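Quick start: what a row looks like.
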Amino acid sequence: MTNKLSGKKLAVLGAGKLGGILLRAYLDQSLFPPKNVTATVRHEEKAAAIKDKLGVNATTDNAKAAHGADIILLGVKPQVVGEVLKEIKGEVGKDTVVISVAASVPTSYIEQRLGDKVPVVRAMPNTCSAVGVGMTGICKGAHASAEHLEIAKALFDAVGPPVAPRSPISFSNRWPKQG
């Protein structure tokens, strides 16, 4: 198990297509023992199937999944990110790293909604991640440290080499203006 991830508890919020690919890679490579992982999906039947197939805790309750997690992988669709952030806000603090793979959602959007200087890392894995030969671009938000970036790198190394820019990149120009 990678030292950066050893003993950590992971919550995968949105274990659908991309979240499911990443979750299976983490389990296949023993980055986390199943007992340290909780995954969420929208429907109870799907949660039961994930629990049976992967041996992880699975639920439809994002706040329950986030409770006590050291790392939260935000894998929900961009249109529900705001709703999910409201649900988990009380469960996330400055010691929890939130890693988002939600397309086109900037770190500042997540930071504003979670507050308390929560460390956020944005990751953009590509399609090849499904077969373990992908590449993931990552960048840290305003409150994420080099250590948080290393945690993200350790996660995405499971599906191909992660790359991080030397300076933060803003995705703000791709996100709709909030009125």
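That is the whole record. DSSP finds six helices and eight strands in the chain. The CA atoms of residues 104 and 176 lie 9 Å apart.
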